[in-house]
Design brief:
- About 40% of the residues lie in helices and about 15% in strands.
- The chain is an alpha+beta fold.
- It has a domain of about 140 residues: NADH Oxidase (3-Layer(aba) Sandwich).
- Strands 1-2-6-5 form a four-stranded antiparallel sheet.
- A hairpin with a 2-residue loop joins strand 3 and strand 4.
Amino acid sequence: MSDNNHLVPLNFTYLSQEEMVINSEHFYRKMHERRSVRHFSDTPIDEQIVLNALKTAGTAPSGANKQPWHFCLIKDDDVKRHIRSLVEQEEKENYERRFSKEMKDDIASLQTDFSKPHLTDAPYLIVVFKENFRVVDGVRRKNYYVNESVGIACGMLITALHQSGLATLTHTPNPMKYLNSFLGRPDNESPVLVMPVGLPAEDAQVPDNRRKPLNEIVTII
């Protein structure tokens, strides 16, 4: 982590307005293809692709540059099976007792339930932890804007994986604290996301969901 009190020259590439318009349009079109995938192929994926995406996530801005995130990259089949078992136990409780009728109605189009085969089908799982506070020499230290910082890092991770040609799913089972002990993460961290990563199955299907048009999500003042 760099010394925040030491300034260095900005490394920045200046582009023409035309180049920026073209780049922004190409990037939008690529990201518009991104979909959450629940049907994965077990085709092996070069680990370096995922590591590069994780390095990209690590470049995200964060409150006071504390970088309050940790990523567990899981490729061991036995570990994936155990995580799936733990997740499905909690998800069964969610679907049967915890979820409201309104929520069940809202997610009905996803045609999903407590069974999560994507957690073992995909060649990788990434479990994202947020660091609620730091412990330095036994002393508790603050982190700042933790949720915002980790959310931005996760968005950059999803983007990097999609740009690399891989599919993802943002799976957020709740509660997830059991993942701390299973994955050996300290109590000052909390798991926020379990993300299967890989290639989509050849017969993969996704809901025909509509994305809001620009005029519904942007106000120009």
